[in-house]
Amino acid sequence: MTPLGLTKFGLWDPLEEMIGDDGKLVNNPAKFSAFDRRIYDAGVRTEYEFQQILPGNDPENPDSDPILDAVDLADAGDVPAARKKLMALLAEDLRCLDAHAHLGNLRFDTWPDAALRHYEVGKLIGELSLPPGFKDLLPWSLIDNRPYLRCLHGYGLCLWRLNRPEEALAVFEHMLWLNPTDNQGARFNRESLLAGEPWEECRDF
Predict the structure, then answer these.
(1) Per residue in 35-81, pLDDT tens?
(2) What is the pLDDT of residues 164-203, one digit of tens each?
(3) Centroid of chain to Cα 75
(4) Counting Cβ atoms within 10 Å, is residue 166 exposed (0-12), middle (13-18) or buried (19+)?
């Protein structure tokens, strides 16, 4: 499999991003958790964005997005048609990470074991595309990283739901390293897992 491309963007400086106002992570370094302190102490890192793979998408026509078509089908109650459309995307190119994420979403409520497999495939394809020992960032603000981050999020939630809390904790901590500003609630999930809370008490998806 050909790895996804990675585009290099700017530098992420924790001194600017983790201390300040206007939506920053925290205002006072003294309030850092031990884990946030590790992120801060890691210093300046580079931001990257994954290549987007979306067969059938026309960049000139926003209405041509097949992922949104599948979501609309699922919202209308036609889950089999949504699943068929997403599987067709993977038949064209298995590296369509958003298809893996949304296939997981379709199974999440009723069949978490199956959802886990979908998320895991997307997660592994993303990992295949990263250099060994990757320590930099894949921020949510770079939108083509979102399919991979969605796969990680769903994967962590499924592990938690399937009573695999230590593995789930590792996933959410990995998400925070990749995206310290945390647009998906990984920090809250981490705290709940450390507190020993079972999945039933934390159902947000």
Answers:
(1) 988 999 999 999 999 999 999 877 777 677 899 999 999 999 999 99
(2) 999 999 999 999 999 999 999 999 999 999 999 998 755 5
(3) 21
(4) exposed
Please, how many CA atoms are within 13 Å of residue 13, restricted to the half-sphere of its CB?
A: 4
Exposed, middle or buried, 135 (CB in 10 Å: 0-12/13-18/19+)?
A: exposed
Q: Is CATH 1.25.40 the classification given to domain 94-205?
A: yes
Question: Can you state the angle between helices 146-161 and 186-194, rounded to 10 degrees?
Answer: 20
Residues 184 and 153: beta-carbon distance below 8 Å:
yes
pTM of the predicted model as reported, rounded to 2 decimal places: 0.91
Give the dihedral sign, CA 135/140/142/147: positive
SS3 assignment, position 46: strand
